[in-house]
Write a structure and sequence with these properties.
By secondary structure, the protein is of the alpha/beta class. Helices cover 41% and strands 17% of the residues. The chain is built from 21 helices and 24 strands. The strands form four sheets. Strands 1, 2, 3, 4, 5, 6, 7, 8, 9, 10, 11 and 12 form a twelve-stranded mixed β-sheet that branches. A hairpin with a 6-residue loop joins β2 and β3. α10 runs parallel beside α11 and α14 crosses α17. The protein is elongated. 46% of the residues are buried. The model has no long low-confidence stretch (mean pLDDT 91). Bound molecules: threonylcarbamoyladenylate and magnesium ion. Threonylcarbamoyladenylate binds next to β6 and β7.
Length: 547
Amino acid sequence: MKTLVYKIMNAADPLLDEISRILRNGGVAALPTETVYGLAANALDPKAASRIYQVKGRPSDNPLIVHIAGLCELDLYCRDIPESARRLCETFWPGPLTLVLKSNGRIPPEITAGLDTLAVRCPDNAITLEIIRRAGVPLAAPSANISGKPSPTRAMHVLADLDGKIDAVIDGGECRVGLESTIIDLTGDKPRLLRPGGITAGQIESLIGPIEIDPAVTGTLDEGETVHAPGMKYRHYSPTAPVYIVGGDAETAAAFINSHGGPGAAVLCFEEEAAYYQNMQAASYGLAAEPETLAHGLFDALRSLDRPDITVIYARCPEGGGIERAIANRLGKASGFHFIDPDSKQGEKANMQIIGLTGGSGSGKTSVLKLLEADGAYIIDCDALYHELLENSQELIAQITKRFPDAAADGAIDRKALGGIVFSDKAALNSLNSITHSFVMREVQGKLNAAEKAGYELAAIDAIALIESGLGELCEFVIGVVAPQELRVSRLTLREGISEEYARLRISAQKPDRFFIENCDFIINNDTGDLNDLKRRWNETFKQIKQ
Ligand code: TXA
Ligand code: MG
């Protein structure tokens, strides 16, 4: 399908009639709003709405917001509307506030995900308001991104995700607010903030009195607790690389981030702090002194850091109960609510030493890992971790299936088939790595934190791609284990019951010994294949590390 792009500067543009017609007749088009771009379809047409889910890859249990032309249309789709709703609409509509109200059943279940409530809002964008009026139907519109990616705040973001999949994009320039609307649920005993956004809790409270903040907003939801806005339970806004929010004052944070800033590390920072990060990849997203600029720039900056060469992102996050709450919520979700407190981290780091182990398959690094374990280290075998993730992480399986459909069947990944594809194709291997590394990194970080809490003094991470994945940056020393090719082939065939040919294919896809010799702090040569020799060489290396 060809996606038409219309650049429209004002609401009197005659093209609006054509766009309205597309939407009325079951089309799907991305429209600018003051918050983010929305992917709109006729909210009275279940078939059109189901295209939205399909195009975005959105889970069908996540209902859509219905966009209407104003307060006068509220009674058409909702019932038992409380007085507080009308007061909020009169003050904040058109604007970035979504109300959850009782549905009167006119909006079909495909849009409400079968709930008896409905989320409605009236967007503050002259072009889109005019399109709603001319279409003569309410428009269901989630943010116009692929599920999981940052919401689009410019037409080019929409095209990056959805070009060729939707009928049209209306380019109305950059979105003013930059974060999705505030959602407030008025169907319970007390008004409840489900998603913070451009209208702050304080603004709402000044009009209708105290409101509750849903625990999902701050990521403090306990396991098993229900999420009230179904969309809040999904990982979201995430670049491929893991994101960590670094607290503390400007200087402490900069010291921590710079000392962790290897080649794959990037920082998402405030304009005022950019000078601290001249030696690393940095994207500043606005002024800390003017948090609206941070909201405006956040998603664009997150997208700019979504690159295969970036393996970890450290983010600075504003504090406060205004728009800062919405920024912290989105960054929290992008990071899986992972916070680093650099003050306590400095101390922690000194407590547990982390050693990296790397080398090709069959070189004997896992034997060295076992020796480390015997020496009291907490060990992490990334190969085993990866295989576990391949079995259990639905998110990883989904991403690999999308990129390598031939290696997937019945919701599972065929490892042999996947190997067959990537071991002989460098680009495919890189693409697989860019998917898997961030998942493994996340798991490793979690395990390291747990080990540290449990009081371990030494941890070892064993990974073939330790250096390329950015894991090496977590390690004080990296040890490379190398061995002659023929020895590796015979070990692999014996250990894994694979053919010699497959073993050679796998080895040829890996880095040569030279790479490890150049990049590691220590090299252990496992050329005799005798465990006692290996043990002796390990002990010599360990002595040097301990010095
Ligand atoms: O600013 C916005 O609201 C943008 C623009 C395009 O208008 N739209 C937007 O839609 O952010 P979306 O689909 O990305 O987010 C809608 C959120 C989801 O978290 C969804 O679960 C929640 O609203 N939601 C929808 N209907 C709901 C309901 N009946 N009760 C509770 N939450 C609901
Ligand atoms: Mg969204």
